[in-house]
Amino acid sequence: MKRILTIGICALMVGCHNTPKTFFDQYEETFTPVKLGDGSLSRDSVQWNNVFVEETQELYYTKSHATGASIHKFDLEDGVFVDRGKVNLQENAILSDVHIAQQGNMMLFASTMLENNNDTIGDWNIWKAIRQRGIWQKPELYFSRPMSENEFYPTLTESGNLYFTIAPHGSQNGDIYVAEFVDGKYDEPKPLPQTINSLANEGDAFVAPDESYMLFASFDREQSLGKSDLYISLRNAEGDWLPPVWLGEEINSDGYDGSPFVTMDGKFLIFTSSRGSSDENTFFNHYIVRFDAEKYRKDALSLKNYLSNIGSEPQRFALGTISGMTIEYGASLSLMGNEFYFSRAAPDFSVRTIMRSVFENGKFQKPTEVWTDTFVQDASDVQISQDGQSMLFKMNGQIPDDSLRTDGNIWRSHRVNGDWQLPEMLTASINSQLGEYYPMPTNSGNLYFSRQQKKTSYDIYMSEFVDGKFSDAVRLPDHINTELLESDAYVSPDESYMIFVRMDASDGLGVSDLYISFNEDGVWSHPINMEKINSEGVDGSPYVTPDGKYLFFTSTRGSSTPDKFDGHLDIYAVRFNVKDWS
Question: Domain containing 242 — which CATH number?
């Protein structure tokens, strides 16, 4: 029964294929959701998956009952929904997630029916039934070969592509997949992008017949209101799925919202909601509201929306574009310039390069090297100013008038007419012959950085900016800098907190961990291990976006051996609120 309720909560697919004009005309000015078929279709019940067949004026839906769920039917007669009862497909079977192909002669649904006489599992699969002479025939599996996971929420498009949700056995967290129909057969299902499929549950997808946009239900996203909310993902000019946009408070409620479906003219969204019910007595009704998918395109193309899809659990950032290519670390983001800067290294760190990725058309573009000038070599640890017009970074060697030195030092470059100028090395009050790296500027002008030490490996220093110049750098207190390695300090712009790396600590989870310390009346507090974020491998290079909402860091957790460096080092992102740590 728990699974059936979950289906009702997460799936709730409503369909409506080009209903008679006179029926939907009454909702032309409906910009706030109202019940559809109040008292007939909507009757405070547990039912979902409504699909309207235009030619026959039938509305199919899934209804929960004591032993599971079954598919039922309404007829639309004279503008009123008339209940025609259960559709006889398979006796004593659990049937759900109904979808009707546009022509009205093929039904898809999810069921736990046994696949064959040897099947003893009874997992969820997608089935189809064909209508002949007005009668639905015996169901058969939709795919020629069954899959090992549970499958739910099928939706078929004009191209023949099938979108559906796959969830591993024993898990309620599903992801949306597409099986593309090519040369008369289906390719292996592929998951939709990471920005759509979070670490929580996504499902109940309605995909426009031309696949220009998709609506779906999801849980636990940054932008949400209720127990499940509705989101839309559009496609950009290249055909890529854009990060989802929350449909907002005008459509979502504090309950369960799901079952999205848009009429064929694109003017009305129909969905199912538990609004008005309680946890003790959860019921659903069906709602209708005016809809325009293009209304959400501007938001879908924005960097703000892209970042809003960063989840509450760390995930690799911009996988396949920024992360996952080689060794990536050291993030810095200009919200004003829509630019992401980071470092990329060879597997043995023999070469380091500063990279730049521009956010355009709703996604980060292929990164390019910032410096093509031969003077800037083996550079990394970049930090970009918020206006995008200056940067600090570390570079090995290239010391003026001393070609023999190979230690790392902190450099600054300014941008003029869009081009980065030759950098200048910061003063001796910051740079020494020991090796400095990971610069972090603050609003006051104070600069924090790491310095290599013979006795304690690496320590964190600060140079105060007074009267227009940097004072001699001072080492932070011993409870920050111990005999262990401490480095990679991100310091908030107002210097109220700091996140840094400590290696091989007794209270650590992995090889190196992230710690947070707070500035209390000018004194840094004893650091706290950020256990909820750290892993058993390497975690480092922290950076928080200027709005304080997202934490970027580098980790080996994606490796099969995270505690032994094997060339897997990626940039991760996670939602962040400093108040959760204070």
Answer: 2.120.10.30
